[in-house]
């Protein structure tokens, strides 16, 4: 399913965007354009995401990111380069991450 089609059919309440269980492979440009600048809570749990570095920095206000039940690996997290200064909660349960402590670059979580 194309995530851009989901813009109309997603749950957005103030600063929370819920796109869980939608079989998504990407976070599309329309979602980023419409919600990225002010979204603080983003739930993308139980989709088919295998990358986060291409869109994560388009959500600068993000405080809570739920990515449970996707296809993320250590290599995807190692590609993060800029600090995520506002992020306080990152949930990665049921992904393909084996050892989280070695895969997140130092200073990403300021």
Automatic annotation (TrEMBL):
Q: Where are the transmembrane segments?
A: none
Pfam (any one) = LRR_8
What protein is this chain from? U2A'/phosphoprotein 32 family A C-terminal domain-containing protein
Q: What organism is listed for this UniProt entry?
A: Glossina pallidipes
